């Protein structure tokens, strides 16, 4: 198998990241003040995923420090979605 075909998935990921970065840069221009509030959606999903991984971890499920990142992400999500900027 040629080296080009082996690097094709990495190149596709790189191109996808460049496109996503372009959308991230253009989003505040297009959506104006809603751009910051839209950032609360990925933060909320991150908080839920962190909570789930901490809960399912056999070593850390009973340690309160395992839930700190999820609580911070959920708190940031709540503050971005609830508080207006202006």
Tell me the structural class: mainly alpha
Count of individual helical segments: 4
How many E strands?
0
Which of globular, elongated, flat, extended, rod-shaped describes the shape?
Answer: flat
Strand fraction? under 5%
Radius of gyration: 18 Å
User: In percent, how helical is the residue content?
Assistant: over 70%
Distance between the termini: 57 Å
Q: The biggest beta sheet, please?
A: none
Low-confidence blocks of residues: none
Order of helices and strands: HHHH
Q: Give the mean pLDDT.
A: 78
> What's the structural domain tally?
2
Task: Explain what the structure shows.
The protein has 86 residues and is mostly helical. It folds into 2 domains: 1-31; 32-86. The chain contains 4 helices and no strands. It has helices at residues 3-31, 34-38, 40-56, 68-82. Helix 3 runs antiparallel to helix 4 (68-82). It is flat and about 40 Å long. It starts with a helix and ends with a helix. The mean pLDDT is 78.
């Amino acid at each position: 198998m040629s080296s080009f075909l082996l690097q094709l998935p990495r190149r596709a990921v790189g191109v996808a990241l460049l496109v996503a970065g372009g959308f991230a840069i253009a989003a505040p221009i297009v959506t104006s003040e809603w751009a910051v509030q839209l950032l609360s959606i990925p933060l909320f999903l991150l908080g839920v995923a962190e909570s789930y991984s901490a809960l399912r971890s056999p070593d850390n499920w009973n340690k309160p420090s395992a839930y700190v990142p999820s609580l911070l992400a959920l708190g940031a999500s709540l503050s971005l979605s609830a508080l207006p900027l202006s």
